[in-house]
Amino acid sequence: MLFNSAGYLLFFLAVAALHFALPHRYRWLLLLLASYWFYMSWNVAYIALILVSTFVDYFVARALAGSRERGHEPRRRRLLLLTSLCANLGLLFVFKYWGFFNDSMRALAEALSLHWELPDLDVLLPVGISFYTFQTLGYTIEVYRGTLQPERHLGRFALYVALFPQLVAGPIERASRLLPQIRAEHALDWNRVVSGAQLFAWGLFKKVVIADRVSLYVDAVYGNLDFHDPSSYLLATYLFAFQIYCDFSGYTDMAIGSARILGFDLMENFRRPYFSTSMTEFWRRWHISLSTWLRDYLYIPLGGNRHGVAATYRNLLVTMLLGGLWHGASWNFVIWGAFHGVLLGLSRATLPLRDRVYLRAGVPGWLRDGLRMAITFHLACLGWVFFRAETLADSLQIVGGIAGLGAAWSKPFVDPDVFANAGLGILVLLCVHVFQERIGGVRESLTRAPLLLRFAAVYALLVAISLFGVEAGAQFIYFQF
Fold this sequence. Notes:
This protein has helices at residues 6-21, 24-40, 47-69, 74-111, 129-145, 154-162, 164-167, 175-183, 190-222, 230-262, 279-285, 288-302, 309-327, 331-360, 365-388, 392-402, 416-438, 442-448, 451-468. By secondary structure, it is mainly α. It folds into 2 domains: 6-187, no CATH class; 192-480, no CATH class. Helix 3 (47-69) packs parallel to helix 5 (129-145), helix 4 (74-111) packs antiparallel against helix 5 and helix 13 (309-327) crosses helix 14. It is globular.
């Protein structure tokens, strides 16, 4: 069930109406059943995986708290934490990474003239598995650290794991934020309803007017590289940067908007990342729930920046390598993660030198920031080549072609339909983001605006969606992760 479908609209309206009609003590059950129904609309069988993660982490967290209260040795708590890690990461490995691991080992064995006999597993990737496993792992780790008390109500904990607006593609919520909201009673608030509808409409605009329209061009080029030249590669890569941002942030806006109407505040996941002036800043603005998760549960436990320069760069590289692998089971994602790990290290190492160069050259602050922004955006686009291309060979063909190592450049392939409709959407997006960067958040401004103006904003977005949006509901890119 896609957010950009009539089915979801009917589903959500029914759930929201029942949610506010029921007494508070029954609402968790309604939302839990609705969330399971929402997930089972993709594949009924895979609800079992959510249930496994839910039960394992619920009982492990309870056992961790009991072990701490009874003064058991740390070794016992470490074994309990290891149980959660093995269960959750084991599910991820089997359903997401086994094929990649098996193919890589088979290729290595053939190169060494050895025989590799383990069979492939014919299973579909469960939608959203990386998101909810990281969410439950974060909960267990916090209980293990003693910074969070375990939730004793199994139903409310199950809802924390499966709350349908953010179940499939995040944000990856922290238990310390979401569980108290699940326990709290929420009254129907028309200000929240209108602001949630505005945010949902804005996310839908980004998805169907920009991302889905742009994907028509990107897919045509990236899916048929031999029929296009480097100028088309470059244009498709620029457009993919907007596609993936509008697709993923559009989903996040719709998730946050849906949750907001129901009374829940989900965390911010994007903060205009293409306005970043360094790769470090980029990762503070892009997929914030994942980058902070990796920071808190991987980078800092590895040592962070506490053990010298070399260890810091190593920790950055390891964190981003695993972050790349989190996105997908292929060498392209490993390379994409390593690329960003190297860039983060270089950004950190060269910042003082770059600051001195700009200062001695007398570059004005606005021009310095503009240059840094342009460089950061193009570095991100270079990384997107490996993220989007189907194979490593395709990635190298695109990068080589753009660098002038392949076919000769000519006039790029242009699809008038894409550029007429998506171009207008991108222009609106950039204007809104400039406003947000310079003045403040559009959502907050609209919240303070008269109710009539706020309804007008929703209406304008819906008109634009109906006139310029792609009608066929396309799946969100991050559903495959």
